[in-house]
Amino acid sequence: MKIKSVLKPKHVAWALGALVGAIMVTLVAHSGAKAAVQPASSPFVEVATVEQRDVPVYGEWIGTLAGQVNADVKAQVTGYLLNRRYKEGSYVRKGQLLFEIDPRPFQAALDQAKGQLDQAQAELIHAEAQLATSEANQLKSQLDVEKYEPLAKADAVSKQDFDNAAQTNLANKAQVRAAEAAIASANAQIRTSQAAVETATINLSFTRVISPIDGIAGIAQAQVGDLVSTSSSPLTTVSTLDPIRDYFTVSEQEYLALQGRLSKSDKDQWKLQLILADGSTYPKEGEFYFADRQVNQNTGAIQLAALFPNPGNILRPGQYGKVRAMIREENATLIPQAAVNEQQGSYLVAVVDKDSRVSMRPVQVAQRSGAMWVIQSGLNPGERVVVEGQQNLRPGMRVQTKPFERDVE
Predict the structure, then answer these.
(1) Residue 324, domain extent
(2) Staple 372 to which of 90, 334, 349, 354, CB 3.0 to 4.6 Å?
(3) What is the mean pLDDT of each run of 10 residues along the chain (409 residues)?
(4) The domain boundary residue, chosen from 329, 361, 392
(5) Which of 302, 329, 356 is at the close of a domain?
(6) Phi, psi torsion values for 186, nearest 5 degrees
(7) Whether residue 262 sits in one domain with residue 176
(8) Has this prediction a pTM greater than 0.85?
């Protein structure tokens, strides 16, 4: 049995048309989905509120480091340098041997002075013996005078015998005085000889050049074999470096403004920071030490000094050491440093208004305060500035905001 189609030609045509239409709609819809541009969402940025509060104002002054004590080690006698007994740049103790000068001439001078002292002491002994003899003779002649005097009056002895006894007594008295003078001269010679011995002993000791203080010994300025003397330049210099001084100058106006801080008690000393040549901050704080007695009339500045702890003697004299310290507090407008963009010497900040739209605003900046920057003009307290997400921002762009979380200072 054959099955005949129940579709008529017009029905077939209608079905084919519907199918083609459906395919076209699908193609058009698919093509339209690719061509359409979806609206971009607003970017997220982190914003901070412009602050108004008191901040410390710091001053910075160029300084130079120096030893607390700088002792020049000089020769105190003339002679040839025999040895150097220390390592240059090392730590030395007070009394430590640094150099040796040829001691032989000074040892000979000491031996000679001791010989002269022995001679003077021998002369004293001789003079004392002479005095004893003279005194004994004078005593005997005095007794003869006393014996002959009454006899001469009674004509029991001749006047000549009495006169001879009297003259002998006078001569013996003169010998006593001469012996006493000889003793005084011998004593004087002994004192002179003792002084010569002491001087020679000191000069001999000066052939051993020692360190006068504890500290770091510098480079030797004389070599073995050099002839050195009291007029020569220092053999080396020893410096006490812990604590170490930093000399810096401030203007007369700054000095007057700082009087309140300079005059504080020891327990509330003005604290100072030390900025080294590489820009790093020395980890230990220093204290104000003294101000010079006068203002330099040529420069209008006065020299101040600070003391910084220096364990291990890391800091050395002559180093650059800029001093930084708080000089006052003042009310200021503050924003995070990351919110400020520098462009060819100008400073710009992205500001977000109440409608979350961005505007680029020029500002004038002052000094930094921790992680914040002091703004002199261009912003008002309470405004919001973009700190993170500033890339690709354009004026008038709408943004989505969230608070900027900064580290606690």
Answers:
(1) 239-329
(2) 334
(3) 43 47 50 46 87 85 91 95 93 95 95 93 89 84 78 74 80 86 90 94 95 93 94 94 92 87 68 90 91 91 93 89 85 88 86 90 84 87 89 87 74
(4) 329
(5) 329
(6) -65, -40
(7) no
(8) no
